[in-house]
Amino acid sequence: MNLREYQRKILERAREKNTLVVLPTGTGKTLIALKLGLEKKGKVLFLAPTKPLVEQHRRSLEKWFGVKGITLTGEVKPEERRRLWEENRFIFATPQTIRNDLMKGRISLDEVSLIVFDEAHRAVGDYAYVYIGRKYRGHVIALTASPGDEEKLREICKNLNIEHIEWRSEEDEDVKPYLMGKEVVMIKVELPEKLKEARDSLKDCLNRLLDKLKESGYVRERVRKRDLLELQKRTKKPMVLSLVASAIKAWHAKDLLEMYGKSSFMRFVQNLRRDGRLASKRLLGMDCFRKVIGMEVEEHPKLGALKLICSRERGNMIIFTQYKHTADMLKEFLKDAEIFVGQSRMKQKEQIETLRRFERGEFRTLIATSIGEEGLHIPDVDIAVFFEPVPSALRMIQRKGRVGRTKFGKIYILMTKGTSDEVYYWTSRRKERKMMKGLKTIEEELKKGKKQKKLWEFYAEDA
What we know:
The chain is an alpha/beta fold and about 475 residues long. It contains 19 helices and 13 strands. The chain has three domains: about 5-175 and about 435-460, Rossmann fold; about 180-190 and about 300-415, P-loop containing nucleotide triphosphate hydrolases (Rossmann fold, 3-Layer(aba) Sandwich); about 195-295, phosphoenolpyruvate carboxylase, domain 3. The strands form two sheets. Strands 3-4-2-5-6-1-7 form a seven-stranded parallel sheet, sandwiched between helices. Strands 8-13-12-9-11-10 form a six-stranded parallel sheet, sandwiched between helices. The chain is globular. The two termini are about 35 Å apart.
């Protein structure tokens, strides 16, 4: 596998310092990391957040370089993991598995010469990458297509001991020739009158609940969902917590109805009925909420738009949607599609087999939740459909990265006018611009830092 010029330059810098590599999806971050790993003498640990992604990276090492590696996940028994760790040089694993084995004393990172943190944007909060980053004193290469804003990027660099950032955008001259190109088509639909009436009734429910919180002085006049979530974290009064929970549920019910239609809303209603807590009972008891339950409304116009796309396009297609129940709804609507969801519903073997069947052309439409967004290389995908925008630059970038990897791709974004769809879309665009600004700032901060020995050299001398 020959490196492109920008990959070669990035590899040169990654040899010298702990490096965060930020590249558009499909431009070969994995290849850079594997090349660096092959140059090392000791163990190489390649971490990725999901089991299918771990397995994909292991297969890439074997396919591209003819080198064997082993996969360690929670499905392998602890004693077997210990043995495999001791006997193998290239280890591909989920971070939760490695963290657990470190905490139990089954393994040590002393012999590890390089750790690859794939999807490094996860290295924040209490995610397992953070624990591993603190325990490890050696060479690091971290990979992501979208690290987040300046604050998050600073946290990632601290948690993974990053000393240098190498980043390119789709507009960089050394990257452009290798991108196959994408066409983005925005399809805006109008809510039918009956759905508008139902949506307005749910807005009425939400406003009534918010008015109660305003009267008590817990929220200001103009309330965002984020305000409710923050209030939920800081208040300890049971009745206030219950009222806030009812408002959040009402907001979610409104979003489901206007973004997905009545069937998604009714699925949520079933969950409320099973829940049985006061917050759910309060919402179910409101006349404005009961009115919507009893209404007969049209199907959501996004479904008609999706059907039209499927009838016109002939290539392999991935449809992204936020929720598992929406994936089920779309599978039932389209008939000849398969779903790809997380391990609460699909075991690792099922996930891998579904992707392989898709690659073999046994079906042409794959409906995926967020697990299909992150890192997975699914070749020969012609079209991606975003059934809804998401308010995350990271997820929008990753969704777009599923097409245009090996040939020209087309992306359809379905958006309902005057709803949270529009808010989420523009939120993600704003966050993407903020992310680029943050990259420049942190890159400059690292460059201005004091020149020092490589971390792994320092610790080697200290030992």
